[in-house]
Amino acid sequence: MRTAAVGTAAAVLATGAALGPAPAATAGTATGRITVTATAAEAAGIRFVDIAGDGGTVLKANVLTPADADGTRRYPLVVLPTSWAMPQIEYLAQARALADSGYVVVSYNSRGFWQSGGHIEVAGPPDVADASKVIDWALAHTPADPGRVGMAGVSYGAGISLLAAAHDPRIKAVAALSGWADLIDSIYSGRTQHLQAAALLGGAGYLTGRPSPELERILEAFLSSDLEREQEMIDWGRERSPATYIDRINANGAAVMLGNAWGDTIFPPNQYASFYEKLTGPKRLELRPGDHATAEATGLFGLPNDTWTSTRRWFDHHLKGADNGVDREQPVRIKSRTSGGYEGYPDWTAVGARERRLALGGEQTVRTGLDSGANGGVVLLSNALDQFLKLPPTVSVPLLPRSYAAVWQSERYATAQRVRGTVKLHTTVTATASSGTLVAYLYDVGPLGVGKLVSNAPYTFHGRTPGEPFTVDLELFSTAYDVPAGHRLALVVDTADPLYIEHNPAGARLTFSSPPSDPSYLSVPLRAE
Asked: pTM for the whole thing?
């Protein structure tokens, strides 16, 4: 009955949010809608509160406590900051499940969004301070145990949770789902602006919140490719990157679980894997098919979900001391995009233990500025289709226009090739202009020449001398994909993709070569057999 009431409360709140005015940092009034919401919330055991965040900024929050809480004992605490642009009802289903299993749960709307006060600071210092203020409030107003504090969240909530763990030693366990460790390496990888990701985040921020003046300046400089402000943007991103504070996180000793999707078009998995390797405390890395936050999405509706099951097991062990075996399992847990079960590894380097190199011989020249037909798809949509329907972006490799796309193909493989980890491109480029962009794609090519996208990544250069060769080393986004026997791998490189901002002057050309002294190649990591 309490679970059903949670759904009722969520539905009422969602309706109110959809039909109400634009978000404003004002307290609610005793309207009919609020009365209905309060009734449903009371039936579900939900308490809606205002918490004073950093500088007194009001944070709208909800609290759930175990049904048997009678003031005689304390319970572990889990704090859940909301995702970017999401209302405070986001975690109600998971919060109810946690409360029913013996946790105090406080979920709050991140500052600048919906009815919380302040401006959107993009996990800046005020957001980190807010997390500690919420913990302070919970310890003072709920039966939460100060020695057993955890934080979790999806996307924006994940980033804030990791940053908070670096600054607040009370946090003993974190579950960071579909988040970022390095903000620059996420949306500016290869020195290339991830256009669709930035536009989606920026648009959602304006629709559901109040961007800070600083965010408006950074976003304008980012989207307009203002290179004079590049260092300012990088410094801004580093301040908001958990990887910057890895030493603090390790010193505080929080147990960190990271979860992400192979096809996350906002926070690609590479930066999480790199961060995971630098953690020295208890840690776990889980990677699954999907796009940004799609691996966790069904769990937010209360449906069975592997990611949230792992999260509860992680907290049960590290906050309750449950002997559930999570500490004895292989800490790196991945699921291939093309095959069934999970695979366990002792560390990230063991995921792609074997290497197969594809030689990139000869010389190929391409014109710039036109999408050849090879591209990474559409943010959120394409990799979600791959997750649920096994339909990744496809292209006919034989029909790609060779004047706009350089193509290299392997032989047909006699056995399945289980690609695991990070594919790396090493090549020599000669450009006719000082700036430019290239995008590399790896395809699984079947007998009819249809290529299914395995991975991709962009690369941008500035300040090069026209006509002078230079080396490019590019990591494609990490993945797990099984290439069937009888298929081949194809590397395609072009210069434009709707996912990214390209920097190719009109009429420019790029030439890819393989000098005898430094041959070009594609390094493909494979699972150990």
From this structure: 0.91
